[in-house]
Design brief:
Layout (H helix, E strand, L loop, with lengths): L27 H9 L10 H12 L6 E4 L3 E2 L5 E10 L2 E10 L5 E3 L11 H4 L9 E3 L5 E7 L4 H17 L4 E7 L8 H14 L1 H13 L9 H9 L6 H9 L4 H13 L7 E4 L2 E3 L4 H18 L17
Parallel strand pairs: 7-8
Antiparallel strand pairs: 1-3, 2-3, 3-4, 4-5, 6-8, 7-9, 9-10
Helix pairs in contact: 5-6
Length: about 325
């Protein structure tokens, strides 16, 4: 289910989840810039002034907690960067601001490497090793989906991807599944843990489980999940004793937590969220998604700055 959490202060929207980050040590360049600021002028390098400025600009009420990291050198010569995190009621959002070295100007935007993929920053945060996947190894288009088994919109997207990707792009596209169970879904986390337990035993069997959960989503509850799961296991190449042990000890919960932490680092705030060669997308209808994939395939023929450039396959320890 798409989740939008609104801070009730003149429409302020804080959409990203995550824990506050520790401030880094002030770089020498930042110290020199602070010293070079014009005497008597208010400078964005002054945290108190910057906080007051941002509260005014974004209409952040006093209840919103604001944390500002020390400025550090940015990828752009002459600009410093600082991370600003605003939090309220357990919800937080983080932005990166760029500040001129004299502290007199603020730039709120994104810095992209002109000689590389414009989505490189997010690509570097996405991990696909030992993750459930289907599609073509070595594909030029890689989609990473953060999903929630209890989310109706995720069910729609899962059906779209499963029905169309392998059929339409037998050699050009690959899909990876990542868990992002939302806190307000009472059986999404147990379902994610179970999926990871099944994946450990039988990577291909994970996709039977994936399709089954979404197909039976309307019938599953927190109370009957284990009963429904036992019914699914009949006829599957899954050892029920090993699976139950994995579930009882919650052995795969750290894997789910790691996936969720990655989602937060990527500013995922709703499910499903799909990253297509690093490009962040929501729940896109198939005709539109197909257009994006087609354009990306053409672009990668010459760019070659995303996708799986070498053929690869998922292998788990102990699995031949």
């Amino acid at each position: 289910m798409r989740r939008r959490v609104w801070v009730l202060t003149l429409g302020l929207s804080l959409l990203a989840w995550g824990a506050p980050q520790a401030a880094s040590k002030k770089a020498p360049a930042a110290k020199k810039a602070a010293a070079a600021a014009v005497p008597g002028e208010k400078s964005a390098l002054n945290k108190k002034h910057l906080e007051d400025y941002l509260r005014h600009m974004y209409l952040w009420a006093p209840q919103v907690q604001v944390e500002i990291s020390d400025p550090t050198p940015s990828p752009v010569k002459g600009l410093l960067q600082t991370a600003v995190r605003a939090s309220f009621g357990g919800v937080s959002d983080q932005i990166t601001l760029y500040i001129s070295s004299d502290g007199r100007h603020i730039l709120n935007g994104n810095v992209h490497p002109a000689a590389d993929n414009p989505f490189r920053a997010d690509l570097d945060k996405l991990t696909t090793s030992l993750q459930p996947s289907f599609g073509a190894p070595g594909a030029s288009v890689v989609m990473v989906v953060f999903s929630d088994f209890q989310c109706p919109h995720c069910r729609e997207e899962a059906k779209t991807l499963r029905e169309n990707i392998a059929k339409t792009y037998p050699t050009q596209a690959r899909v990876y599944f990542k868990d992002y169970p939302l806190a307000n879904h009472d059986w999404a986390r147990p379902a994610a843990i179970a999926g990871r337990c099944i994946f450990r035993q039988n990577p291909l069997g994970f996709w039977d489980y994936h399709d089954w959960v979404f197909d039976k989503q309307g019938e599953i509850t927190a109370a009957n999940f284990r009963e429904k799961l036992n019914g699914f296991l009949k006829g599957q190449e899954i050892d029920p004793l090993q699976l139950n042990r994995c579930l009882e000890k919650r052995e795969t919960e750290p894997e789910v937590e790691k996936s969720m932490a990655e989602a937060r680092a990527l500013r995922v705030n709703s499910t499903p969220t799909l990253f297509l060669n690093g490009r962040k997308l929501g729940n896109v209808a198939w005709p539109n998604l197909k257009q994006i994939i087609d354009r990306e395939i053409e672009y990668q023929k010459t760019a070659k700055n995303a996708g799986e450039q070498e053929c690869c396959s998922v292998k788990l320890p102990g699995v031949p």
